[in-house]
Amino acid sequence: MLRRWLADRCEFPLFLRELRGLFGSRFRLGLWLVTVLLTVVFLLLWLGETGGVLRQASGSRFRGQWTLLGQFLAGCVVLAGYATTAGAASISQERERQSLELLLLTRMSVFQVVWQKFAAVLLQSLLLVVPCFLLTSLAYAGGGSSLAGLLVVWLLLFVVGVQLAASAVMCSALISSPAISLGVIWFFWMCLLAIPGLLEDVGILPQWYWFRGAGAVLGILPFVHFPVGFSVVVTGGGVPEFLLSCVPPLVLSVLMLLVAVEGIRRWPGRAFLNPQSVQVPRRWLERRIAGWISRVRGRSDSRAAVDSEVRESRQLPERDPVRWRELARNPQTRWHAHVLYCVTVLLGLLWLRRQLSPLEFAVSLPVLQVAYGLLSMLMVVVCVCEALAFERQQGTRDLLWLMPISNVELLRQKLAGADRVLWLLMLSNMTLAMSRLLLDPMSRIGLSVQGVLYLVSGLLLLLMVLHLVKWLAVWQSLRCEGLLRALSRSMLVVTSIFVVPALPLVVEVLRLGGDSAVLERRWFLCCCSPLLVWLAHASRLLRWRGGSGVLLVMAVTGLVLWLLVLLWLRRYCLRLFGSSEGRGDDGGNG
To answer: Which domain holds residue 518?
Structure first.
């Protein structure tokens, strides 16, 4: 009753409606689960630092800085995942429901629509990380950590949230599809990371020397607050320079919001990019060539012929109509989009190679490959959820069931766009892996037989994981209505599968320290968690009516993959703590 009274009498009805949609859905459970997971992980790391386990392993004195930076990076990942997903669907859903014109016809102006959407996305994103950061910040403050470092991390999180929310609202205001808007957001930030660095290398952009050490590390103006903030957290000095470096990102965010306002003002009914009106490039080229030939021959009925071809191209073919529509309404299934992805990745790698030292570049390559693999998983989940949950939102599910095809055939045609996106993402990941083999200065593998086997095995592993993520998203999208709810539940299931099994490993390592013999004996305790998680999901998949034998095969395959990953982590931890014990023994003997 109080919420309804506020919605009727408050001047921010759109903002309250967005928040009511968040807290009224099942996403609250996912929010608290993510918060609890992050809190447990970073409190365990803080206990490991204060207890001396990590301090003895590294041989240096910890004050909480590195764990604080790790917490900031984890918070940025959560912010990026939710802000881009919710922001990409904020205004695009209004266009799909054709309710944006109704909003503009009321007493709300374009500025009010944009800033209320932006404030809702920003607040929802910050609510994911604020409870976790409150608990861990109190723990760090009680342990004697620097107060300036805590304040800097809080301000960095806020600035990152403002940047991501502004870019997401800008893209959703210009594009009428949430899935395409999400892809454009990530491509936009990849271009901001790669292209200005190349321009600075050739001398077009000036060096910003008035930030301490930032001109030599990261010359891109929108991201200059990252290295300055990290230096404040580690050293404790340079707070005025950090505050000055936060001004350009905020100015850029304001410019993005102004672009969103101008986009809605210029295209209130139809967005700048409407995927429903995008035709196949081959058909468009054929129509253009036919029109030019008709003009050269001097035919008077050329315009009528072109119009008839346009009408015929807009009609659904008799064979696979749903598949044709899915491929036509999703420009991410085009080759040119993923060619741009590959070119952007190569430009970013070349820029990183020139900016960083050989050792730093060799360390950043695996991180970049893992990050791009996670981005591929996110894009597959979004494409699947957008394809299946879109029909429930539009109320066309009953019409689809009346078509003379089976349910299995309908599902196969609906997943045609997601399957093509999956294979094109594999092409982009193969380009990144080949670049890693060619450009890594510390690698001795090169293009040998071992290097090719390494490349093929990594790509096969990623392909199996992407297929598993696709079927999990299918399972969740068919059980719930709404794009945002399907995305949140799919990401919750994927997180529980890929994150929860690693928590017992962290607990055992932090509790046992460098005792490799005890860790060897209790390793089966760490393997119980993925077994339980996978058995729970496999049992639910088998009870699902739309499930088949392929889902069970994917579940068993995922279990085997996780066991291999845990075995690799076990080997790495034993090597790490074994080497630290060896160094400690040598120092004592010396």
So the answer is: 499-590
